[in-house]
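Trying the structure run again after the queue cleared.
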Amino acid sequence: MSLRKSSTEIPQQASVKAAGDAEAPMTRDQIKHLKELWRRAGDSDAFDENLTKGEAQKRITALEALLEREQHSGTERLPRT
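Done. Tokens:
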């Protein structure tokens, strides 16, 4: 009996672990980064303390893209009050 795992078992296990990680609560680093991006973008709907890791990463990516586009377009976003 071989102790080596087949090549098909390893990716399946990795994808299950990744899916489980995505459903876990967001990390402290994600919270910190999301709050900073939220502040810079002035988007009060961007931060929700109940996000999962996967949801937080999607919002981080979207806010980074938004801020990058605005930086290159020359427009300045004024903070919401």
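The chain has a mean pLDDT of 76. Worth checking whether this holds up in the mutant runs.
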